[in-house]
Amino acid sequence: MSFFLILKEWTILIWHNKLKVRYSYLSQQFSNCDDLWKNLKQFVKTGDFTLGKELFKFEKSFSKLIGTKYAVGVNSGTDAIKLSLKVIGIRPGDEVITAANTFVATVGAICELGAIPIFVDCDDSFCMDVNLVEKKITKKTKAIVPVHFTGYMTNMIKLNKIAKKYKIPIVEDACQSILASINNKNSGTWSDFGAFSLHPLKNINVWSDGGIIVTSNKKHYEHLKLLRNHGLVDRDNVKITGYNSRLDTLQAVVGNWLIPSAKKIANKRIENANFFDKGLKNIEEISIPPRLKNYKIVYHLYIVFAKKRDELLKYCLKKGIEAKIHYPIPMYRQPAMKFLKHKMGDFPVSDRHAKSIISFPCDQHLSKKQMNYIVKCVTDFYS
Ligand SMILES: *Cc1c(COP(=O)(O)O)cnc(C)c1O
Fold first, then answer.
1. How far apart are CA 271 and CA 304, in angstroms?
2. N or C: at which end does the chain have fewer Cβ atoms within 10 angstroms?
3. pTM value?
4. Cβ atoms within 10 A of the Cβ of 158, count?
5. Ligand 1 centre from 81 Cα, in Å?
6. Which residue is closest in CA terms to ligand 1's atom 6?
7. What CA–CA distance (Å, rounded) separates 107 from 183?
8. How far is CA 229 from CA 22, 51, 73, 160, 332, in A?
9. Each residue of 235-275: pLDDT tens digit?
């Protein structure tokens, strides 16, 4: 069964059938927000659209939420990674180590600076297998970008030891992992830079594209503020060349409205994932990824390994469950990465995952009825 055939069937299904369990919950998240509209109305009257008061308020709340001294709002999660790498001084030809199975944005940010992504395979946590990092380090390695994929966390205890030994700075791609932690230390606080996305499909979102970088280093903070705003010190003085990468103040108003719910959102996702773990664990054909005790996983994606995955996906779609695959083709095998000259099998764990993973909706707006229905359908499929 080709992936495109599944896609086609899924499209037909949307036309003919109402989905019983949808993937995107955005219409629910903002269905009841009269108070937000009131805030926006007031905001619009101020005309404070760029680098406004509401933005600084949001940055303060975000850094407090994550546990760093500073935060800098930027226009996307991609730019959050790119600007952080820029502060480190990444230049064309430098090597940047990252995960082989990430979302394209991580790799895009590295390539935009002319640097070369050096991939490391993942383990069954979906994050970079840190045991494989050391042999990828060369004289050209100038940064490591671990991706806390799915809301799991990369083993930062071990990775930091390696980075320290070779004096290589780290930028955490924390785009999927707001409030994930190891030993209660949050994702984004394990290195000099934590890059977050505020894209509509991320756990905290601001209606359209947005991103934010956390750091506790004052020098990095000042540098990031220059980079996101053309390198302007003030209206008339340009210190460095930079970007137009400000987070819109209008979006910060949305962020300020949503951020008090951040912990509740994370906890609800964890609760839902625990429900699925329990409901699916006795199905022989399904295996649940490792759940380490000292790791808090926030389940931006809820993924399990499934036998007969393609058939299961097709079955779920037919039953009105919008299951997905993140992702069917690992980054290293994408046409855009041809210049790296990798071949099929270079990253065997990512390849195995691409064939066996399936993602189910796990968000805070799912009902118990919908969750029971997912468990029932998966159970029915195998029996
Ligand atoms: C969402 C995401 C990003 C950044 O994406 P933007 O759309 O630019 O906000 C980066 N890395 C990962 C792993 C992501 O999921």
1. 16
2. C
3. 0.94
4. 12
5. 9
6. 77
7. 28
8. 38, 9, 11, 31, 33
9. 999 999 999 999 999 999 999 999 999 999 999 999 999 99
